[in-house]
Design goal:
Helices cover 12% and strands 46% of the residues. The protein is mainly β and 202 residues long.
């Protein structure tokens, strides 16, 4: 629809398709499509669907945003991998393996000035606990929790804030856990999910 609207307005907007990784979905990706628009002689990336809202059960809930409107290719490339390498709009381009190995941080993570120092993989093996190290120059408030997806193992992770933030998740037993990271601008305000990764605890 966006490409058709652009065409009707005389703008150069193309459809890009391939794989995307989304919060709460399979970390190995799912089929998806997005757009690139030529603006001032340069291409910029747009994910209109992810900025339109969310699906809650079988209902779509409108929630307009701009996180994926002209996001830098390096940010877009964490969650979106096009079939044609040229639409990564970056040099050097990522391989498919490199794309899927990246920790799945959403555009909002980078927009808040955060940088994940470690781990540097989307799936990691640990011995009972997972440690995350982050740069947090704007000193945003952070929360994290884990869930084994079976209803038996879930809980909150310990967070140490500041410009060099740390998150520690102690798991109740062996198994696979999905760890989700949230950020807020006020301690007792709204927190937004900005990333996740999988930990396999021995």
């Amino acid at each position: 629809l966006l490409a058709a609207l652009g065409g009707a307005a005389g703008e150069d907007i193309v459809v890009i398709g391939a794989d995307a990784r989304n919060h709460g979905a399979d970390l190995t990706g799912e089929g998806h499509a997005w757009n690139a628009a030529r603006i001032g002689g340069r291409w910029a990336l747009i994910v209109a669907t992810w900025d339109a809202g969310n699906v809650n059960g079988d209902r779509f809930e409108k929630e307009y945003g701009t996180e994926y409107l002209f996001a830098p290719p390096e940010v877009q490339g964490v969650t979106h991998f096009p079939e044609q390498e040229r639409w990564q709009l970056r040099t050097p381009a990522l391989s498919r393996g490199e794309f899927f190995r990246q920790p799945m941080m959403k555009a909002g993570f980078f927009a808040e000035g955060l940088t994940l120092i470690s781990p540097d993989r989307s799936q990691v093996s640990v011995d009972g606990e997972l440690d995350l190290a982050l740069r947090n120059p704007r000193q945003r408030w952070l929360m994290a929790h884990y869930d084994d997806g079976q209803g038996g193992g879930k809980g909150d992770c310990a967070v140490a804030g500041g410009e060099s933030a740390a998150v520690r998740c102690r798991f109740p037993g062996p198994g696979s856990y999905r760890v989700r990271l949230f950020v807020g601008r006020q301690q007792y305000g709204h927190y937004t999910g900005v990333g996740e990764l999988e930990a396999h605890s021995q």
